Amino acid sequence: MTSNDTLFSAADSADLVALARALYPHDGLPDAPYLRTVASIESRASVEPALWHTLNDGLVELRGAADAAPASTDAATLQQLLRDREGTPFFRAIRQLTAWYLYDDHEVWAFVGYPGPSFSLGGYLHRGFNDLAWLPEPRIEESGLDLPEIGPLDSANPTVKAAS
Amino acid sequence: MTQYALDDTDVAVIIGSGPGGATLALQLALKGFRIVMLEAGPWVANEDFVNDERAAFDQLSWTDPRLATGSWALARNFPASPAWMGKVVGGTATFWTGLTPRFKNHEFRTRSVYGEIADASLADWPIGIDELASYYDRAEVAMGTSHRQGRPPMPANNNYKVLANGAERAGYRHYATGPYATNVEEYDGRPGTLQDGFCQQGDKSRAKWSPLVSEIPKALATGQLELRTNSQAVQVTLDAGGRADGVVYADEHGALHRQRAALVAVAGNAIETPRLLMLSGTSAHPDGLANSSGQLGRNYMRHTTGVVYAEFDQEVHMYRGEPMAGIINDESRHDPDRGFAGGYYMEMIAQGLPSFTTFMEPGGWGPDFTAKVEAYTRTAGIWICGEDLPRASNRVTLSATLKDHLGLAAPEVHSDDHENDLAMLEHAYAQGERVFRAAGSRRVTRAPAMPSGHNLGTARMSAAASDGVVNSYGQTHDIPNLFVSDGSIFTTGAAANPTLTIMALVLRQAEYITANHGSI
Measured between alpha carbons, how far is B343 from B339 in angstroms, rounded to an integer? Predict the structure, then answer.
């Protein structure tokens, strides 16, 4: 956070990281993606005055309301503090930006199991696009039966009623 | 590339290079018309597409200011971005999904078949399935859509196996992997699919049909078309006699130019098309061009939609393979016993992790949310696509406060859900859940509408000039040499994904222009 350290102190960053993890907790996910997420948020706030103001204002208010700094507070307590602030501009900003950057982080992709682009690898044509084996192979052609355009499905093709 | 002069008065100017504009350009070019096409966005070659959802969104999407109002979920969840459209050569079809069902016969006659429905502006189209059948055939050939015109079916990917097995067990019979406008095998000079799973970020392989890989290069090859990119139309001008005589557009630096024209066709999608005609209003046409009916911008439709996601115990990997090559048709019929008019399709959907986390539960957070995220590889999805009812009060207007980068009034898109739409959506959510539970899902999630890719109805087609903006050929009732060539002209929305029908209507329009241009 080199260029932003006049805007966000180390304590600010640590609190934002704790809030990011409280918002989107993933057991086993290292700190690195959360640190990168907060760095991206701070970078954006460093050129968007309104965002900086919102984050700074929200952090000050949250610290005043909490017994300890967010970085020293357990996740469940932080989540309650966040829930109490769901309608605030601070909450909306930090939630939206944390989700935006965290789930665009490739370490998070790998953690969840999303491999990202496949074109350079030849797609999945020969890499398992159809490797699901826990269900029978379904028909891919159209049924050949007539589908009524108006009215119920016919008796050989029972009407499907709304789930009860 | 062929170039025309700004003062060439004999050119046809086509605004927009999506499926409507590009189809018209190719057909007229083949008949020897001289054509200038204005595209607000850049040319992005297939190899330059970025298979990353966030980067691709920035690269391809129309991100100019917009404002959504009304009771629809999009006004709450994505108020500045209620629609997802392309600003790129090929238009929204550069990242479309590709299902191409035809309309049903009665979907052209909804006022007659559904009857009077309060708070809806249902109307019959001035054209029917019989007049469109041959154009549907040609559109399917042009797109090379699977399951049609001798093209083979798309093979089943993992996500489809879940959808189809669930459908079968739920008692549905009318499911398949298409019709789907992507090559299964080589066709029309383009390769078969790699099943790379990223066509919603632009298809690098060219297997998926879009104007960028078909109509645009074919039209350019005739030598009759000049394509001007980064050229955003800001006004259609009229001569003293009230005929369209040119288009003013802004180049990438914001400098204005005026291209003279013998004919103008607007194909900017159902938000930008009425906006442009409104922005073109004059002292003689204060409510916008071609708006003597007062219908311009009204009857905005975007389909009744939502998503059902379902978690399974075992792996699905929905991101592998064609993202929407699967459809269940059984509920697409009109069956008022279900408690609503019209029908809906259940369509397979797959998303990458960034989109999944954005749309699965907008605004969601906390441990319950992240548990769903961690089930991503075991998740399958159904996208609901149903007929929404037109309402005169659902409309695109010019904002009194919001401006775009040129200082022009941004569009406001107002939409209130009709109770019929809500009843259909509830039924569709329940049936989607039923399909997935039948396939073995233990947890299902109902997600609200994503920003609309289907935007329809704001320059409604009508037989009488008092009832709509254009006739059955997309020719405006008020200005004979001004045409609309996109989904704006739909009288009602039907349940089907609209692109095939847009192309069919424009193929018919092109024949009409060719046959009548001496007298238009």
Answer: 11
